[in-house]
Please model this.
Amino acid sequence: MNNSQYLKNQWYVVGLSEEVTDRPFASSIMGEPIVIFRNSSSGEVAALEDRCVHRQAPLSLGVINGENLQCGYHGIEYNRDGNCVHIPSQKKIPPGAKIKSYPCRDHQGFIFVWMGDPAISATVEPYNFPYANRSNWRVRYARLHGRFDHRLLIDNLMDVTHLPFAHKSTIGASGVADRATVKTERMKNSVRVTRSMENIEPAPPTFQ
Ligand code: FES
Model:
């Protein structure tokens, strides 16, 4: 996909909360290389362009120094807003020595990053996972690695009529494909699809 095909003014999950520590790590969203890290003193999460203004070294190879991210090449430091705040080899910080910063949120076990207009980010909440905050539910987080186009996974999850065939020994109750009533509603910022399946035999009780 080229960059113009992405939805910019949206929150994107970049990783699990537990993965973001005071060791910076690299990621890429919408083709933009970014570095994510957690300040060691405040615990706040930050997302910056993964490229030093000096010699373009990836900042994800650097370290956290207090509240700042320190480049691993010549030690220039950036705060969470992307401003260069310290240059070890000189006193003067050139005006404009700044890298792009992205709004980010630590929300319901995920780190969300906003790739569009920062001013709009304050008006939009990250996706709410309704079961994540229920005390009587146990939530399990996992990362799925795969060498495939992510759109194939979206396609897979949106069309559950494959369940009786591809998952017949686990969640593939018969009737999912041909006896469901499907209702599609246009919401404010999304589309909701509800499948009602009444009087259908549940899937087999045990995993095989
Ligand atoms: S490349 Fe980052 S300080 Fe030189």
Q: What stands out?
A: Residues 52, 54-55, 57, 71, 73-76 surround FE2/S2 (inorganic) cluster (CB under 6 Å). The helical segments are 118-121, 150-158, 163-166. The mean pLDDT is 90. DSSP finds three helices and 13 strands in the chain.
